[in-house]
Design a protein that fits this description.
- With 313 residues, the chain is of the alpha/beta class.
- It has a domain at 4-111: Rossmann fold (3-Layer(aba) Sandwich).
- The protein has 13 helices and 8 strands.
- Helix 1 links the parallel strand 1 and strand 2 (22-25).
- The longest helix has 21 residues, at 119-139.
- The chain is globular, with a radius of gyration of 19 Å.
């Protein structure tokens, strides 16, 4: 049985698999959780922290992305480390320095015990090609956003088993999608597990999920190519680069409006005014806190946003 490595944000899954381990993105269990954390700023980090400390997550070690993506994870990760779990801290370079990121990948490789199966690099690369094809089905109105999102969000860890995950990708149904408007979802993924289904119920076809698309577009076949690719992880670098990437995707995907999901007590919330200044699209900003079905207030706001775009010239 392979050892399970918990990851708190995007860490190259191809490297973890190549080192003979299986990654588990601890965030992916949060939306379905009914846990009320004892102390928290962000519910995402507080819930996976408490689940690990209470034995609710079966992991052998933890990799905390402490630089770039999520700042709250640094403290909650240290609480896990103090409980006795083997913990490694991974830092993305804000200035996109390739040599620095390669040094971080080398340290991570040592923590994981070294590369044992280089074939995993190409296997994961092939899966990401399938993921991008699935994403294009959604862009071309041939797959429901809710079905596609469920698959794409798992590209951070390949659901812990690449073979099983490939079967899941192959099972996503093709169908003609009817909608009133095409929207992009930027920011961290919603903590509400039914968000995409709720948006669909009001005629909103989500053709772009910002963070899961990062999981698809980055990759590599060795430490050098991983460093060159993952240095461009947009959530961990200057926001001007992230804005340009978003702009290109909004145009390519023929988007009518943007939904910016923000999480309570997340530093990414402060980016909302930047997006509003630089993205020339109707923008709806919503904020979530604890995992639960989409609340009625959110449904009313999504409905109003959909109606507004329907009457826009």
């Amino acid at each position: 049985m392979k050892e399970t490595v918990g990851i708190t944000a995007l860490v190259p899954p191809e490297l973890i698999y190549a080192c003979g381990k299986r990654p588990m993105d601890v965030n992916n269990v949060v939306p379905e959780s009914s846990l009320s954390p004892g102390s928290k700023l962000c519910a995402w980090t507080a819930i996976w922290r408490d689940m690990i400390l209470n034995g609710g997550l079966d992991i052998d070690s933890l990799v905390v992305v402490a630089g770039g993506d999520c700042h709250n994870a640094l403290v909650d990760g240290q609480k896990v480390e103090l409980s006795g779990m083997a913990t490694h801290y991974f830092f993305y370079p804000f200035d996109r320095d390739t040599d620095y990121l390669r040094s971080q990948l080398e340290k991570l490789t040592r923590f994981l015990g070294g590369i044992k199966d280089e074939r995993m690099f190409s296997l994961i690369s092939d899966l990401k090609l399938k993921g991008r094809a699935l994403d294009e089905l959604r862009v071309n109105d041939r797959a429901r956003a809710s079905d596609v999102f469920s698959a794409l969000i798992s590209f951070s860890d390949m659901a812990g088993d690449p073979d099983v995950f490939e079967k899941m990708l192959n099972s996503v149904p093709e169908t003609d999608v009817e909608y009133s408007s095409r929207v992009a979802l930027i920011g961290v993924p919603p903590i509400y597990p039914d968000f995409h289904e709720t948006a669909e119920s009001f005629g909103l076809h989500v053709v772009y999920d910002e963070l899961p698309y990062e999981f698809l577009r980055l990759g590599g076949s060795d430490l050098d190519s991983l460093a060159r690719s993952y240095r461009d992880y947009s959530f961990a670098g200057p926001i001007k680069n992230r804005v340009e990437l978003i702009k290109n995707e909004l145009q390519r995907r023929r988007v009518d409006g943007v939904i910016h999901y923000t999480q309570f007590a997340c530093h990414h919330t402060l980016e909302d005014e930047i997006f509003r200044e630089h993205l020339d699209y109707p923008i709806l900003t919503v904020q979530g806190d604890l995992p639960r079905p989409s609340p009625e207030q959110l449904k009313l706001r999504l409905e109003a946003f959909a109606e507004m775009m329907e009457v826009m010239p």
